[in-house]
């Protein structure tokens, strides 16, 4: 499983790098390399932690984003995510590196890198509290799927999506793209839509989730929504 983790991480980084540097028209883009280095290091670190503490969750996280058990709506959603993700990366590379429409100060580049780190750090707490945090929306009956209500789940119902908000803000700041940052609200809105659809399925199919949703009022941001 460790070998698969490393291989998938390398292939993922290679794909991201091809998009970024291809759109940038150059490999002489320090911010692009820093992003790949940060995500590669954090991804391997998180994977090794899961391999030790929760190998069943790591096995789930290594599965593809389109799965047989997944609902049709989530398959469509994930296909759209792949398209939007690639377009977002290309836009930021064109903006920050090829045409240099944006000028983002260095301290905000650093803040962006910190936001990405905080996103992964928060995700670690999510994984510790929820062994069923699969990349797709499905009920894992074969693993005894149950409601997670401790740790960050005591504050919001979708803490991994909450962490992703930091990523959507941090990545364009790190890469130096105001246009990329302008897209962040649309990406967050997409997460919100998925959270609503996911909850409909969980309330209908996962025992105890309706009671949990009644106890924990907020989906993504405490006190707001």
Core attributes:
225 residues, 9 helices, mainly alpha, 0% strand, single chain, Four Helix Bundle (Hemerythrin (Met), subunit A), globular
Give a structural overview.
This protein has 225 residues and is an all-alpha fold. It is 69% helix and 0% strand. The chain has one domain (2-215): Four Helix Bundle (Hemerythrin (Met), subunit A) (Up-down Bundle).
Topology:
Elements: H1 2-24, H2 30-53, H3 55-61, H4 72-98, H5 106-129, H6 159-175, H7 178-182, H8 184-205, H9 209-215
Helix pairs in contact: 1-2, 1-4, 2-3, 2-5, 5-6, 6-8
Quick overview:
The chain has 225 residues and is mostly helical. It is 69% helix and 0% strand.
Rounded Rg:
18 Å
Given as residue ranges, the uncertain stretches (5+ residues, pLDDT < 50) are none
> What share of the residues does DSSP label as strand, in percent?
under 5%
Number of H- or I-type helical stretches: 9
| Count of domains | 1
